[in-house]
Write a structure and sequence with these properties.
- By secondary structure, the protein is an alpha/beta fold.
- The chain folds into 2 domains: about 100 residues, 3-Layer(aba) Sandwich (Rossmann fold); about 120 residues, 2-Layer Sandwich (Alpha-Beta Plaits).
- About 45% of the residues lie in helices and about 20% in strands.
- The chain is built from 9 helices and 9 strands.
- A 5-stranded antiparallel beta sheet has the order 6-7-8-5-9, sandwiched between helices.
Length: about 270
């Protein structure tokens, strides 16, 4: 049974959670409940929780995330929901994530932060492939996954091309897609003055780079951001050539109004 902590200062949401009778059916224990970030932190210091459901004021949410980022950086945070139907929907999405976070990783050893990073990368691959087309769901997933990317600001997206589409990567890389993506993440992945850069490798060997502002970070003007991304991308392409023996180039690029629009990417 998964253990959930509800943190809310709203009596109506507290009542919904108290009156729900589907906890065992959803593989959860009835949640512990706190009314503030401080009370929630106290409960977490004394009792284990797999995840947190949250609905509080903006100021209280900021206090809560300060605590979580310092002490529990990999704990999923669920949108509490305002109706019984929303709560059940959100619980199902949370359960799907918890199953994956607790999956058998074979002989590989990952700590909770690394497992959450793996799930974030898997989510962005699916997002680019168009598997998520509901903005509300995308925002809930970003929150569950503790993504620092800001879904309300524009992001730069690039398609990275090889000299030829068919067979080029498989000829130059024999260790599988997962390890290729790890290698590319190690080279391209960065935080640039408040901008988070990630790279995703698609099953058909297409490569995409996404650069998105992080929450609460102030960026230079748009021209400087674009130049910064281009310089980082070219430097990373040079490293791929030097260390992996593969040629890449920027095949196409665009600026999206939000990372939630990655689901409709045509690039």
């Amino acid at each position: 049974m998964y253990k959930l902590l509800l943190i809310t200062d709203r009596p109506d949401i507290r009542d919904i959670y108290v009156n729900l009778d589907i906890w065992e059916e959803m593989d959860f224990r009835a949640p512990r409940i706190a009314a503030s970030a401080a009370e929630g932190a106290d409960i977490l210091s004394r009792h284990y929780a797999d995840a947190i459901a949250v609905e509080v004021s903006d100021a209280e949410r900021d206090r809560l995330y300060d605590i979580l980022n310092e002490r529990y950086p990999a704990m999923p945070v669920m949108t509490a929901g305002e109706t019984p139907a929303e709560v059940q929907r959100n619980l199902k999405e949370l359960k799907d994530l918890l199953i994956r976070l607790n999956a058998d990783y074979s002989n590989d050893r990952y700590d909770p932060v690394e497992k959450m990073q793996l799930r974030r990368h898997a989510f962005f691959r699916k997002l680019i492939q168009g598997e998520f087309d509901d903005e509300g769901r995308i925002r809930r997933e970003l929150r569950l996954l503790r993504s620092r990317m800001d879904p309300d600001r524009p992001c730069v997206v690039m398609r990275l091309d090889t000299p030829r589409r068919e067979g080029y990567i498989s000829e130059h890389w024999q260790y599988g897609q997962d390890r290729l993506e790890v290698a590319m993440r190690n080279i391209f992945g960065a935080e640039l003055e408040g901008l988070r850069v990630l790279v995703s490798v698609m099953p058909d060997e297409r490569l995409y780079l996404v650069a998105c502002p992080m929450k609460g970070c102030k960026l230079p003007d748009d021209t400087s951001v674009t130049q910064m991304v281009h310089e980082h991308t070219q430097s990373s392409i040079d490293h791929v050539r030097e260390f992996l023996g593969m040629e890449l180039r920027v095949g196409a690029e665009t600026v999206l109004p939000s990372i939630t629009r990655l689901s409709a990417l045509k690039l």
